[in-house]
Amino acid sequence: MRVVVARCTVDYDGRLTAHLPEAIRLLMVKADGCVAVHADGGAYKPLNWMNAPNTLTVVESDEDGVEAVWTVRSPKGEVLAITVHEVLAELDHEMGVDPGLQKDGVEAHLQELLAADPTTIADGLRLVRREFPTDIGPVDLLCRDADGEAVAVEVKRRGEIDGVEQLTRYLDFLNRDPMLRPVRGIFVAQEIRPQARVLAEDRDIGWVEVDYDELRGIESDALRLF
Amino acid sequence: MRVVVARCTVDYDGRLTAHLPEAIRLLMVKADGCVAVHADGGAYKPLNWMNAPNTLTVVESDEDGVEAVWTVRSPKGEVLAITVHEVLAELDHEMGVDPGLQKDGVEAHLQELLAADPTTIADGLRLVRREFPTDIGPVDLLCRDADGEAVAVEVKRRGEIDGVEQLTRYLDFLNRDPMLRPVRGIFVAQEIRPQARVLAEDRDIGWVEVDYDELRGIESDALRLF
DNA sequence: AGTTCCATGTCGCGG
DNA sequence: CCGCGACGTGGAACT
Asked: Domain spans of chain B?
């Protein structure tokens, strides 16, 4: 990875057109060729960037006040042009391949835990299918309750209004299927926002908050029995 | 901005839990305090990060194989812990405030072009008003068709389900106005996703894909006449 | 390759 | 501060 602090101006022309006036910024070039222009603030997102695959060409300049021009081109015709007026600091280092990130607690894992034991959502619930397909997308969990009636479950890490909208659409579609009708809905998340609760209740959709650590604990306990 | 290349392990505990095994990475600390851990690849997104506002504390260590431990804490209780085993390179530089980015988007221009000639959406359409105000937000284009009936048009660059939901809400509202009723809807975008098409059709909402370059061409032609 | 949905989304605007 | 929509969204998973 190569890092350069430089006084520069930047122009991007691709999915949109953007221009950065002259200022001091940090230029980052990674091993895969991707280039990022960072200001000294504004979270982790760069001001401008160009992801791989692309080609970076650096042209030294004789022009007054221009040390070099970096041109990054993507196969799709996007162009990022960095005019370097002055290099102020520089750093270059081999880093090798990163072993990668281990994540824990995303929606997929939560859905997995709930599918393994739907009774943590509501007593008597049995799983029919995960990712049950409909014309407008897959329902996270399709279950049947103790009375044998269908229950559609939408799982989110954080429960907000659009999650309720999503479940509402699924229910509209599912309730047209004579084999399933009537289908009720339950909205499940680690934390459900007040407005999402109100909207769910208004539409006769149940909502349940689940504790991720607790679910993981239950799973561990279940495994320990074998 | 401060940049450090170091052999390190990283743990994040907050919105999720994540762990990075020991490897060489680039640590970036911006003036606003935000911290990012970059690998030498994977586009511009860091492996781990913590945005401002937060507090960074660095504790030197006597422990074997540990130079220092950086702890970043956010007010919301998120914690990013970086165990630095060895610093390999370092760079520190004042950069000043960035003058900021000038963007020139396509979104607004598309609506402008369609307003200039609504017949590109449907034959006989005449513009009543752009950004027609309702209590739940402005409708992009309000038109009348050849029969004099009201038509609400929602314009998006990319047509997805949310756009259909938005137009549906507007139609619900507009159809309560006796001066407008009945109002039908047309969903317009450069590209409309299959699921959005299904939902639109299901709700008797029309959908039209338009070609931005073609529209621009039509406009150029019109201008050339003068 | 095309399509869909998730994301520690981030970011900006308006109430 | 919250809610909502846009984003050069990026990225993964699945068809």
From this structure: 2-92, 107-224
* Set of chain B residues whose Cβ sits within 8 Å of the Cβ of A95: 5, 23-26, 39-40
The closest CB to that of A95, out of B16, B40, B93, belongs to B40
Higher pLDDT, B169 or B74: B74
Identity of the residue in B15, B39, B94 whose CB atom sits nearest the CB atom of A98: B39
- CB atoms B40 and A96 under 8 Å: yes
Reported as a single tens digit per residue, the pLDDT across B194-211 is 777 888 888 898 988 887
Classified by CATH at the fold level, domain A2-92 comes out as Protein Yojf; Chain: A; (2.70.180)
CA nearest to B199 within chain A: A136
Hits for CB < 7 Å against strand D across B residues 156-195: 156-157, 162-163, 166
What's the rounded Cα separation, in Å, for the pair A5 and B211? 41
B98 and A42: CB-CB below 8 Å? yes
Those residues of chain A that have pLDDT short of 50 are none
Q: Does domain A107-224 have CATH number 3.30.429.10?
A: no
How far CA B155 is from CA of A124, B130, B177, in Å, comes to: 46, 11, 22
pTM for the model:
0.74
